[in-house]
UniProtKB/TrEMBL annotation:
Species whose genome carries this gene: Paracoccus aurantius
Domain of life: Bacteria
Alphabetical keyword list: Periplasm, Signal
Primary location: periplasm
Signal sequence segment: 1-21
A Pfam family that the UniProt record links to this protein: DctP
Compartmental location: Periplasm
PANTHER family, alphabetized: DICARBOXYLATE-BINDING PERIPLASMIC PROTEIN, PTHR33376
Record keyword Transferase present: no
Name of this chain's protein: TRAP transporter substrate-binding protein
Amino acid sequence: MTRTLLVCGTILAGGASAAAAADCEVTLRSADTHPNGYPTVEAVRWMGEQVKEKSQGRICVEVFPASELGEEKDAIEQTQFGVIDMVRASFGPFNNLVPETQIVSLPYIFRSAEHMHHVMDGPIGEQIAQGFAQHDLVVLGYYDGGARSFYNSKHPIKSVDDLKGMKFRVMQSDVFVDMMSALGANATPMPYGEVYSSIQTGVIDGAENNQPSYDTSGHAEVAKFYTLDEHLIMPEVLAVSKISWDKLSPEDQALLKEVGAASVPVMRELWNAKVAESEAAVEEGGAEIVRDIDKQPFIDAMAPVYEKYVSTPEAKELVEKIRATE
């Protein structure tokens, strides 16, 4: 008997993907906010190919990009309830749900992307995965969210003073809101899909994100000034619903874990190539990238953010562990 883990309780009618899914005993539906071709989307597709091959066609992964299954926050909630089987999401929306994600979402907590990889691929990553498990999400791996930087439609940002009074979209996270306040700017939490029109109409002056997102979202068209302040090097998570997970056999669970972990270096290789491609594309399109910037004043401005979120012994211990990781 064919067993399909369904999205919204229905099988999509028609089309090649629906026909392919019908050939599988189990079809896992995976949500992503990014478009086709984006490293996270393609890494999960690669994972799906591996799962199908290694399960001899029994298990399929069907990826829904470009927020087809809802914006990030909604997709996360649907995955927790088992309506969606898998989700790739940034740590930002989890900050108010999984306390450990707040610490690794702090500005300038990571020295580099390599430092972040070493932290998330080791015992600290395992500790954070336990936090996700308490909210019915099984971590398959940690992807790259790149280095997030500021961009806007008004003027180049070369110092902290250039941010004063400006309105920036941030993810729906208290850490992000407090970060903007510490820099003298105004935070406007909103879904990713609303950013383009909000900049275009002047509801906000800009946003902050990595270079591939700045490029593929079209935000470079309406916000021409991008500053490489790299205030956040934030991990992302690929997770499966506990409800969907519990329907799998132990052998299939082990396979999903194995292939999920194997997709991480694939994603990171795709990511590095995409960063270089996006940087060239936005400059060719007329965006101005500010590279020569003194980050120390930005780092110094984060003191009240750390004071607020690193106040418990557990949080202080986690920060020390991260900083001690080579």
